């Protein structure tokens, strides 16, 4: 999935926690959030904060769909709250390739 397609998909599925998301969809969304936050932070801290609040739910939703692609539930994101090591574990899960073929969360993302 391309950069613009990923951003469009994540805004379209704003709070859709069902289904699966490919690695490219998740990481292109993360890149969009990083770039937009930096640019808006240079312009205004308030704009950056407003953007972060506006994209929090889509970020959680796409991360949930990404974890579904690896065979884990969305609640696995809470492991990231464990001090020092939790965010590393979640990052490894998000980087791993998805399960081939359909799984209990739906068909393989295109």
TrEMBL record:
The chain crosses the membrane at residues 26-43, 49-67, 74-95. Pfam families: DUF805. Keywords: Membrane, Transmembrane, Transmembrane helix. The keyword Hydrolase does not apply. This is DUF805 domain-containing protein. The keyword Zinc does not apply. It comes from the Bacteria. It comes from Leptothrix discophora.
């Amino acid at each position: 999935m391309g950069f613009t397609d990923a951003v469009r998909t994540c805004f379209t599925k704003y709070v859709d926690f069902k289904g699966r998301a490919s690695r490219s969809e998740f990481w292109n969304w993360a890149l969009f959030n990083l770039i937009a936050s930096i640019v808006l932070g240079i312009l205004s801290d308030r704009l950056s904060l407003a953007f972060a609040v506006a994209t929090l739910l889509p970020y959680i939703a796409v991360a949930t769909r990404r974890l579904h692609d690896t065979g884990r539930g969305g609640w696995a994101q809470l492991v990231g709250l464990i001090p020092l090591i939790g965010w590393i574990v979640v990052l490894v899960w998000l980087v791993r390739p998805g399960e081939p073929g359909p799984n209990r969360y739906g068909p393989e993302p295109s």
